[in-house]
Amino acid sequence: MIAIDGLRVRFGPNEVVHGISLDVPRGSSFGLVGESGSGKSTILRAFSGLNPDWTGKMRLDNVPLDRKRDRAFFRRVQMVFQDPYGSLHPRQTVDRALSEPLIVHGLQDRDARIAQALSDVALPNSVRFRYPHQLSGGQRQRVAIARALMAEPNVLLLDEPTSALDVSVQAEVLNLLRDLQQRRGLTYLLVSHNLAVVAHLCPIIGVMQGGDLVETLSTDDLRAGRVHHSHTAQLRALTVELEDGGEAAARASA
Questions:
Q1: Does an H or E element contain 24, and which?
Q2: Do 180 and 145 meet the contact criterion of CB atoms below 8 Å apart?
Q3: Distance in angstroms (rounded) separating the CA atoms of residues 31 and 190
Q4: Less packed terminus of the chain by CB within 10 Å, N or C?
Q5: Which pLDDT does position 244 carry in this prediction?
Q6: How many other CB atoms sit within 10 Å of the CB of residue 109?
Q7: pLDDT, tens digit, for every residue of 192-236?
């Protein structure tokens, strides 16, 4: 579903992503992990069309991507940002936030679609006409996920989707994302600085350092300590636990 080959991204004279390549099969998840500034979020923004200053090749469902994307692309690919409060307009209700993708893409049955989206992310219909400041952090991120789902995409780009949340709700959101993927057959490209969060959702992990993809390995190899690059070993050593289950992922994020 996602194919990236030799991607390079520049900001002015500075190249911040150095020719990385990765593939994500349909319905699977690929996690990019690394320290702040390693280039992982830049890859997400380039694939999403938010950063047009790139070279290399990118494909969605075997179709080459140009720098300018059409409306069909943005219906198939949606992004969930790190800060749910910053990504939701403070003066727009949840209803307005969820309605906008339907209006943009000309989708009908607005009331039914919004009700279904709220149900899918385990939010009561009573939040529909509330404002972001009236919701908890976990509820805001659920709204952001619901908004990303309104256009019925195939791909979700997840940029640190739990890092702005309290530890107590991180596991809930991770489990929600896993359930949504299974029910809808979604493909995820997930970015995080936390190995345990990535390991909870992704069978394959890419480790970023200084704009380079220094290692790609399976979650099973990561848990078993079968790593080859020193930076992967360092990140693994900083992780409190690498266990199955959302609670372990949430504790490791603390």
A1: strand 14-24
A2: yes
A3: 5
A4: C
A5: 43
A6: 10
A7: 988 888 888 999 999 999 999 999 999 999 988 899 999 888 888
Q: CA 169, 172, 176: angle at the middle one, nearest 5?
A: 140
Burial class (CB in 10 A: 0-12, 13-18, 19+), 130: middle
What element of type H or E holds 146? helix 137-149
Cα separation, 14 vs 250, in Å, equals: 35
CB atoms within 10 A of CB 116: 13
Do the Cβ atoms of 185 and 25 come closer than 8 Å? no
β-pair partners for 142: none
Q: Check if the beta carbon of residue 195 is closer than 8 Å to that of residue 240.
A: no
* CATH fold for the domain made of 2-67+76-89+155-253: Rossmann fold (3.40.50)
What are the domain boundaries of the chain?
2-67+76-89+155-253
